[in-house]
Design a protein that fits this description.
The protein is mainly alpha-helical. The chain has one domain. The chain has seven helices and no strands. It has helices at residues 3-18, 22-67, 69-92, 108-120, 123-132, 143-176, 179-202. Helix 2 (22-67) packs across helix 4 (108-120) and helix 3 runs antiparallel to helix 7 (179-202). The longest helix has 46 residues, at 22-67. The radius of gyration is 17 Å and the shape is globular. 37% of the residues are buried.
Length: 207
C-alpha cells in the first residue's frame, strides 16, 4: 500500500468515525453525564467492539481471497457501490439525536460493557469494513500486514474522533439535537460517502 492510498483510507475512515451514529451518541452522552473517566471506559469499549469487527472482516476476506480472485474483485466493486448507496441513504435521512436516551448514570464497568455492545451490535460497522477493506488491499502482497495497517489506522482514528466528540459534547450537543441541523449533517456526510465511493469505483489500482 502506497502512502497515497493510505492517506485516502485515513480520510475515508475519519469520515466514517465522524459520521453521526450510535458510537458518537454513546460517547457524547457519556461525556456529558460521566465526565472524563466514564468517557475513557466508554471509548475503550467501543474500540474493543470495533477491533472484533476488524478481525472478523479480515478473516472472512482473507478466506475469500484465498479461494477466488474473481470473488474478491466482485466484492471490491460491490463495496464501492455500497459506499455510494450508503451516502444516498444518509443524504435522505432526517431526524435528530436523542442523547437523553442513553444518558443514564452507570459505573465505569457498565459503561465499558455497554460501549462494547454498541459497536458489536452495529451491523453497519462490519458491513462498512467489509465493503471498504478490499478497496485498499493489494492481492499480490501479504494480506496480514495490510489488514494490520488498516485495522490499526481505523482504531486510532476512531479513538481520536471519539475523544473529540466527548470534549466538544457540552458545546455541540444542543445544536445537533434539532432535526434541521441533523439533516444538514446527514447531507454533508452522505455527499462525502458518495464521492468516496465514486472515486474508489474509478480508481481501481491499489499498489
Amino acid at each position: 500500500m502506497t502512502l497515497e492510498w493510505w492517506l485516502t483510507y485515513l480520510l475515508t475512515t475519519a469520515i466514517l468515525s465522524l459520521s453521526p451514529g450510535s458510537g458518537a451518541i454513546n460517547t457524547m452522552s457519556t461525556g456529558i453525564s460521566h465526565g472524563y473517566r466514564g468517557t475513557t471506559a466508554s471509548i475503550t469499549g467501543l474500540q474493543v467492539g470495533l477491533a472484533a469487527h476488524i478481525v472478523l472482516v479480515g478473516i472472512g476476506l482473507g478466506a475469500l481471497f484465498s479461494q477466488s480472485l474473481l470473488a474478491f474483485e466482485i466484492l471490491k466493486w460491490a463495496g464501492a457501490a455500497y459506499l455510494i448507496w450508503l451516502g444516498i441513504q444518509q443524504w435522505r435521512a432526517a431526524g435528530s439525536i436523542d442523547l437523553n436516551a442513553v444518558a443514564t448514570s452507570l459505573p465505569r464497568r457498565r459503561l465499558f460493557q455497554r460501549a462494547v455492545l454498541v459497536n458489536l451490535t452495529n451491523p453497519k460497522s462490519i458491513v462498512f469494513l467489509a465493503a471498504l477493506f478490499p478497496q485498499f488491499i493489494s492481492p499480490d502482497r501479504p494480506l496480514a500486514a495490510q489488514y494490520l495497517v488498516l485495522g490499526v489506522t481505523t482504531v486510532v482514528v476512531d479513538v481520536v474522533v471519539m475523544i473529540g466528540y466527548a470534549t466538544l459534547a457540552t458545546r455541540i450537543a444542543g445544536w445537533i439535537r434539532g432535526p434541521r441541523q441533523m439533516k444538514l449533517l446527514n447531507r454533508i456526510f452522505g455527499g462525502l460517502f458518495m464521492t468516496i465511493g465514486a472515486l474508489l469505483a474509478t480508481a481501481r489500482r491499489v499498489a
